[in-house]
């Protein structure tokens, strides 16, 4: 048995009358790469916000390495080894790439440079974040997360708006990160990417988990096709 790293049990999140997450169960084993898909507003980002401590779930339990993290602050969860990217990135716009990443390393310049090189940003390391392209901002998000030396990386849509070449590069990057032993929970709308890389896919619809399985099972699941995939050719 592979050891489970993260366990979400009956995780529920309400915003007033809206049930954004409704009893979601999710287990992630060490070394796995799990894809999280579903229509807009289905609760994907909310789940990442709950796991990373930005939101406190209304109900349910989230354990990371056997410890309940539901009442911990984002900073403490991050220190335990969970890092994330943001669907809407929030870089320090007037800091350079290196300075941005050094915020995550706590001043360790050498490790920041390694993360920058790993994400392919060496050429722009001294460029202010406000002058980066959209793709470079996304890569810097990943570099900042890796600079925290996570055990679990939560990725929230780093491919939307990218061109096919940039998407291919991002696929390679994510595959490489997984090879370093980091476990990944990955939200993405670019089906050809997530279906190729993820070993297991979890599907949310209106806050509920409607399916879970291998990419090829999910691609042929009637419920998932009706709720999300439609007529698209996805693999
Ligand atoms: N802070 C919040 N306050 C109120 N409603 C929220 C908040 N965050 C998310 N929601 C709502 O929760 C639902 C799920 O949102 P979200 O998790 O962002 O969906 P997804 O990432 O799958 O597109 C949406 O209806 C969204 O409007
Ligand atoms: Mg989202």
Low-confidence segments, given as residue ranges, are none
Q: Would you count the extended β strands for me?
A: 10
Indicate the overall shape. globular
List of distinct ligands in this structure: adenosine-5'-diphosphate, magnesium ion
State the distance separating the first and last CA atoms. 29 Å
Structure in words:
- This protein is of the alpha/beta class and 235 residues long.
- The chain contains 9 helices and 10 strands.
- It has a domain at 27-90 and 150-198 and 207-229: Rossmann fold (3-Layer(aba) Sandwich), CATH 3.40.50.300.
- Helix content is 35%, strand content 26%.
- The chain has helices at residues 44-51, 74-80, 97-105, 109-118, 134-146, 164-179, 191-197, 215-219, 222-229; strands at 4-15, 18-29, 33-37, 59-64, 67-68, 82-84, 152-156, 183-187, 200-205, 208-213.
- Strands 6-7-8-3-9-10 form a 6-stranded mixed beta sheet, with helices on both faces. The protein has a 4-stranded antiparallel beta sheet with strand order 2-1-4-5, covered by helices on one side.
- α3 packs across α4 (109-118) and α4 (109-118) packs across α5.
- The structure holds adenosine-5'-diphosphate (ADP) and magnesium ion (MG).
